[in-house]
Design a protein that fits this description.
Elements (H helix, E strand, L loop, with lengths): L3 E5 L4 H5 L12 H18 L7 E4 L3 H11 L6 E3 L16 H7 L22 H13 L5 E5 L1 H12 L3 H5 L8 E5 L2 E5 L5 E3 L4
Parallel strand pairs: 1-4, 2-3, 2-4
Antiparallel strand pairs: 1-5, 5-6, 6-7
């Protein structure tokens, strides 16, 4: 299977406000732009002379497109947008905070925690549908790829790729100042410091 470098967009205004963006959007903050530039620089050095064999696939949402544009300043690669890389939508909850959801949809978040509340939405994408979307995208990768996606969907891509359980994948970290290398059924965090590998399931 081809190597995948999986990036998350930089920090956005709604990230700082605790709003779950889903498939709505908000712009990168100054820190988010700095994170995108940092990740682009680390990726440039990671790929070294092998970079030209890669293509870039980007979620069509604004925050990922903005992040990808920072990467392309250092890596001039063929680039396409793929809607399958978009963030998981929580339907009518997109753009809301957990407090607002709890106020406007009383009882829906009962029994949920910081990791699984996304899938309590009455009109959002289901966990299984998100996993199937990730599986379909991975299956279509035909060459080394840099993917610019999102926090929750990035968890699901890594979880599907390595065969993690639902709980394990939802608890995965989602840094905005590093990215993941997916290769041979395992993934490794690359942040310019020390890599940490999560092995494939046997």
């Amino acid at each position: 299977m081809s190597t995948i470098y999986l990036l998350r967009h930089g920090e956005t205004v709604w990230n700082t406000l605790g709003r779950f963006q889903g498939q709505k959007d908000s712009s990168l903050t100054t820190l988010g732009i700095e994170q995108a530039d940092f990740v682009a620089n680390v990726l440039y050095h990671e790929l070294s002379d092998d970079g030209q064999s890669f293509e870039m696939q980007v979620s069509p949402l604004g925050r990922t497109r903005e992040t990808a544009s920072r990467v392309r300043r250092l890596l001039s690669l063929p680039s396409i947008e793929d809607a399958r890389l978009m963030e998981v939508t929580v339907g009518s909850w997109d753009g809301m905070t957990r407090f607002e959801i709890d106020s406007e949809f009383p009882g829906y978040l009962d029994g949920s925690d910081a990791f699984d509340w996304y899938f309590k939405s009455p009109d959002g994408e289901s966990f299984d549908d998100a996993c199937n979307r990730a599986k379909a995208w991975i299956a279509d990768i035909g060459r080394p790829t840099i993917a610019v996606s999102h926090g929750l969907f990035g968890r699901i891509v890594r979880g599907v790729y390595t065969g993690l359980s639902k709980r394990e994948m939802l608890e995965l970290p989602v840094p905005q100042d590093g990215f993941y290398r997916l290769h041979d059924g395992a993934f490794c965090l690359i942040d310019g410091l020390s890599p940490a590998t999560v092995p494939a399931r046997i």
